[in-house]
Write a structure and sequence with these properties.
Nucleotidyltransferase, domain 5, 3 helices, about 140 residues, about 20% strand, alpha/beta
Length: about 140
């Protein structure tokens, strides 16, 4: 009996379509995701200011508080009255302490509606200070003029 030796041929797949699809997905997600507008609510219409400018660098521990024109605060997907904000901030402080940080290390970013009352903004800052937060930033949209 005679044995035949067959040489095995290696089948190679064309990787070009897979690489092309990968780059298309990367481009799609880069266009889709807007990192600077991560914690923005469309209900809040910011006041315009000639002094407004984007932050120089990303913040390490930002906490976004969005003040509506009705005087309620949006925090982490919840809408609460200003007095009830303290319990949410206590929870944020506990999360920071688990990360070996203090509330003083966090930056409270207040996005107040243009029609929100100034006194309510001051109440929000006071509640934050009672919860040991010390750093604040008020957001406004950049004036085009």
């Amino acid at each position: 009996m005679r044995l035949r030796h067959r040489t095995a041929t290696m089948a190679e797949g064309d990787m070009t379509p897979m690489i092309d699809m990968t780059f298309q997905l990367i481009a799609f997600f880069m266009v889709l995701i807007n990192f600077s507008e991560a914690d923005v609510n469309e209900r809040i219409k910011l006041p315009s200011s000639a002094l407004a400018k984007p932050p120089d660098a990303p913040l390490e521990h930002p906490i976004f508080l969005q003040l509506t024109r009705e005087g309620t605060v949006l925090i982490g997907g919840d809408e609460v009255a200003v007095p009830a904000l303290k319990s949410h901030l206590v929870r944020e402080a506990q999360v920071l302490e688990l990360k070996k940080k203090s509330p003083a290390d966090a930056m409270i970013i207040i996005r107040a509606d243009a029609d929100a009352k100034t006194g309510v903004v001051q109440e929000v800052v006071q509640v934050c200070q009672e919860t040991r937060f010390e750093r604040f930033a008020l957001r406004a949209k950049e004036d085009a003029d």
